[in-house]
Design brief:
five-stranded mixed beta sheet; 352 residues; mainly beta
């Protein structure tokens, strides 16, 4: 406690109790003043009126301070918990991220997937901080129309910066819910961020449109996202059953087959071979920067996987690394180009 300027203190005595009272107006005054401790001789240390000596007070203050520091540290720790790492994931790059919901996505045939498999994409209109906003979702059966939509950020601002991936800033996949009528389209964007593309939906029912893109944020960070939205076509709807699984199918005079067994939660190669006129390998041409594009859709919830191929190992073949997110039946759509014409081979595959 601070000493009173009017109080003299002997070298062997604690401050006079009267100084403590003066320094703390709230403390009760001793009407008899200070007194020596009974039985103490001359020069003995004087004591506080409460009978607690100075050293005991100091020890209590130190202990109390330690307890207070521990309590404050515990409280601050609860307010600011340490960062955690999500199990089963691999670090993302600073310039290109794959948030939850983007699906299996490889740019060069490598297996840079989340450990344990990737989630299917296209199940929601919002993912990764972006939302698809169509201007209309109803189309007449069999009549040419135009699909218009915007991609908006978390502040509901139209996004206008997109990375060019496989020669296009936007890939749009459209298919009916029974996995028929597959279309792979490439909209164009206006200055206000509105995308538009001619679209004809030939039959009634509910169709699913997938916008597959890589958005560029203000800080240059790129985020690959696939968003899905339903489109309605009034009229009768008689869903067709999926064709039986097969590893080979004819397409406009070509024979397309594949090797490999996709497994849920595993990244495995699937190798497609395209032959023309018997066993001769087809002269595949680059289409959108690759020798083929593969989209796989899961029966039921229409979960979306878009996987890109690795380098062409030999003429007439192309290999993809595929990570099905779970068991079930999938419909695979392979786009390939020969003599300037793009064709699509379709397969049903059962994933265990």
């Amino acid at each position: 406690m601070p000493e009173s300027p009017a109080t003299s203190v002997s070298p062997t005595a604690d401050p006079d109790p009267a100084a403590v009272v003066a320094a703390d107006p709230q403390a009760p005054a001793d009407p008899q003043g200070s007194a020596d401790v009974p039985g103490a001789g001359a020069g003995a240390a004087r004591r506080e009126p409460t009978g607690v000596d100075r050293n005991t007070l100091r020890l209590a203050l130190v202990v109390g301070g330690l307890v207070l520091a521990v309590l404050l540290g515990f409280g601050l720790g609860r307010l600011n918990p340490p960062p955690t790492t999500v199990p089963g994931t691999v670090p993302e790059t600073a310039t290109h991220t794959h948030p939850p919901g983007t699906g299996a996505h490889s740019h060069d045939g490598s297996t840079s997937m989340p450990a344990g498999g990737a989630d299917a994409a296209g199940l929601s209109i919002s993912a990764g901080g972006y939302t698809i906003a169509p201007s209309a979702v109803e189309f007449p059966a069999g009549r040419a129309g135009t699909l218009r939509f915007q991609i908006r950020d978390e502040q509901r601002r139209p996004v206008t910066r997109f990375a060019v991936v496989h020669e296009k800033p936007m890939h749009l996949i459209v298919v009916r819910r029974d996995l028929t009528g597959y279309q792979h389209l490439h909209p164009t964007m206006a200055a206000d961020g509105t995308w538009s593309v001619p679209l004809t939906l030939p039959e009634g029912g509910v169709w699913r449109a997938y916008a597959d893109f890589t958005a560029v944020a203000d800080d240059g960070r790129q985020t690959a996202v696939t968003l899905g939205v339903d489109l309605a076509v009034p009229g009768g709807y008689a869903p067709r059953p999926l064709p039986a699984p097969a590893t080979s199918t004819p397409v406009d005079g070509f024979t397309v087959g594949y090797e490999g067994t996709p497994k849920a939660g595993e990244t495995l190669p699937v190798r497609f071979t395209i032959r023309a006129g018997g066993d001769a390998p087809a002269a595949l041409e680059p289409y959108l920067g690759a020798y083929g594009h593969l989209v796989a859709l899961r029966e039921g919830d229409l979960g979306y996987l878009h996987v890109h191929p690795g380098p062409q190992a030999e003429p007439g073949s192309v290999t993809f690394w595929m990570t099905p997110p779970g068991p079930g039946r999938y419909r695979m759509f392979l786009d390939f180009q020969v003599a300037g014409v793009v064709r699509t081979a379709e397969f049903t595959v059962t994933v265990a």
